[in-house]
Design a protein that fits this description.
Elements: H1 8-18, E1 27-28, E2 46-58, E3 63-74, E4 78-84, E5 88-94, E6 97-98, E7 100-104, E8 108-112, E9 123-131, E10 144-147, E11 150-153, E12 174-183, E13 187-189, E14 193-200, E15 203-214, E16 221-224, E17 226-232, E18 238-244, H2 251-258, H3 261-272, E19 280-284, E20 292-293, E21 300-301, H4 312-320, E22 329-330, H5 337-353, H6 359-369, H7 392-409, H8 411-424, E23 429-430, H9 432-443, H10 448-456, H11 487-492
Parallel strand pairs: 1-4, 2-12, 18-19, 22-23
Antiparallel strand pairs: 2-3, 3-9, 4-8, 5-6, 5-9, 7-8, 10-11, 11-16, 12-15, 13-16, 14-15, 17-18, 20-21
Helix pairs in contact: 3-4, 4-5, 5-7, 6-7, 7-8, 7-10, 8-9
């Protein structure tokens, strides 16, 4: 028989450990993540690791019913926190206990848990909600596309609030399980791998998994009647492409473009390194918009992208984003160049591959196409401002910046930079300054002047020399008399910059606000 010896000091210490921090130590999380371009986006005080979405959608009425289970970790002692949601919340539970909640502002769901949440201790949040996404307007616009046979969520910089509660900013990426029940004969398309499909009592449930960190705006949902093509890549990745059955005259050109997804991705692996995700594909729903968007693993394409025939260039653009923009995401939206400038330059590299004009020839053409007094040159791709976030200059001047970098450091260092960056920064976030520092480290050159000239000065730069120019002949090349052969197809993708947010009529514009 053993007697337990109680030491007074030990008892006191254990009592101290058992006493929770005082209420004064807990505070509400910020109602914004702090992005200067979108001050209402995202929230502070916690970090999400996983979203489990269980949904039911009725196309005939546009009614979406959902239960979202969110796994997160507080980054401070939380007395209250916010989620971004435009639909109506019906019940909220935190760690299994009912929580108080209320809607505020345009998209804030304020949640007060029954017990305050200590820093660094994982929590579960369950939100039951419902509504008609097409009737939800946030700041006067909607990211939800109604289609003749369903609905689509695909937009940039925001789309999540129309179909699930989230911390809606690229700084807080998470993995996703999306399970959607739809009427038999209708399909539900989302990101990643299709884990299961089952039917019961007139409804079919599709369950998708995206197992690498994913920004909330890159999560997508498309419900409708689709023709599907499926395959696997040489490396075993599942490929799913989906086309609305009612694309009309655009059906053939859409398929002829998107069905080259695997070929394009294999080529991009040569340029950027291994493909970073668990699935591949694309989808073309019957929407009235004109844009495309890099929704992770399965880009969204508006039918109008193929109105003038097949266009593989737009597929190149959206797939390039899987490395630049999706795997390596912006830190804040002012860093959009590290996404869009590289996706545009990928189109130029594809042109080189196809023998339809080199990147240098395309850079020369773009440079010559904009006079010195063209407002194009007043936009600073490195920090364009919220009103110019998707301006053509971010894409074209942004791509010219990369050509100037290539000329400065040479092909060997340049392509080591392009391939090394998405490997070193995989599944994270980055600022423009981070890329500049990386390019300097890999090339061994000081490059701040080059990047300042091309990304930040609101004026037309003096033309950089082509690679063959001598140091004593740094003069502007003669203006090209005609565009490279690839230019028409590249220019046709400019509508990927026209999102339905900030200047376009909702549902009429291109890439995510919509942009891509």
């Amino acid at each position: 028989m053993h007697r337990r010896l109680f030491v007074p000091g030990a008892i006191a210490a254990s009592l101290v450990l058992a006493i929770p921090a005082s209420a004064a130590d807990f505070a509400p999380g910020a109602p914004s993540i702090g992005d200067p371009y979108y001050p209402a986006s995202g929230n502070g005080g916690y970090d999400v690791t996983h979203y489990d979405l269980r949904l039911k959608y009725q196309p005939s009425t546009d009614l979406l019913e959902g239960t979202a289970t969110i796994l997160a970790t507080p980054t401070q002692n939380l007395s209250r926190f916010n989620l971004d949601l435009g639909l109506k919340a019906l019940e909220v539970r935190v760690n299994g206990r009912k929580a108080a909640f209320k809607a505020s502002g345009a998209q804030e769901l304020e949640i007060t848990p029954a017990v305050p949440l200590p820093k660094n201790r994982p929590v579960s949040v369950v939100v039951r909600y419902a509504g008609k996404p097409s009737e939800v307007k946030i700041d006067g616009w909607t990211a939800w596309h109604r289609t003749p046979d369903g609905g689509v969520a695909a937009n940039q910089p925001e789309s999540a609030a129309w179909w699930f509660p989230s911390n809606d900013h690229p700084l807080d990426k998470a993995t996703f399980d999306v399970s959607v029940s739809v009427p038999d004969g209708t399909q539900a398309i989302s990101n990643g791998v299709l884990l299961s499909q089952s039917s019961r009592l007139g409804w079919t449930r599709y369950t998708w998994r995206s197992d690498k960190p994913q920004a909330t705006y890159l999560a997508t949902l498309a419900v409708g009647r689709f023709d599907l093509t499926t395959d696997t890549t040489a490396n075993g990745l599942p490929v799913v492409n989906a086309y609305s059955k009612d694309l009309g005259a655009n059906a053939g050109s859409a398929r002829a473009s998107v069905e080259r997804t695997v070929e394009v991705a294999e080529w991009l692996e040569e340029v950027f390194g291994p493909y970073p995700f668990n699935a591949l594909g694309g989808y073309v729903p019957n929407v009235r918009s004109g844009y495309a968007l890099e929704t992770q693993t399965r880009p969204f394409y508006s039918p109008r992208q193929f109105a003038s025939g097949s266009n593989v260039s737009v597929v190149v653009h959206e797939l390039a984003h899987q490395w630049y923009g999706d795997s390596v995401s912006v830190d804040n939206w002012k860093d959009i160049w590290i996404s869009e400038g590289f996706a545009r330059y990928s189109q130029w590299l594809w042109s080189e591959r196809e023998g339809e004009g080199t990147a240098q020839e395309l850079a020369d053409w773009v440079y010559a196409s904009h006079a010195e007094d063209d407002p194009f040159w007043t936009v600073r791709p490195g920090d364009p401002g919220a009103e110019n976030q998707f301006h053509l200059a971010v894409y074209d001047r942004g791509a010219m910046t990369l050509q100037m970098l290539r000329n400065e450091v040479g092909d060997d260092a340049f392509f080591r930079i392009l391939k090394g960056w998405p490997t070193e920064r995989a599944y994270g976030n980055a600022k423009v300054a981070d890329f500049v520092a990386y390019a300097e480290r890999i090339s061994g050159r000081q490059l701040d002047g080059l990047f300042d000239t091309w990304l930040y000065q609101p004026s037309k730069p003096a033309a950089a020399p082509a690679p063959s120019a001598s140091a004593s002949a740094r003069t502007a090349p003669a203006a090209p008399v005609s565009p490279p052969k690839s230019w028409a197809k590249i220019a046709a993708t400019n509508t990927i910059h026209d999102h339905g947010h900030g200047g376009c009529c909702s549902g009429c514009c291109s890439h995510g606000t919509g942009r891509g």
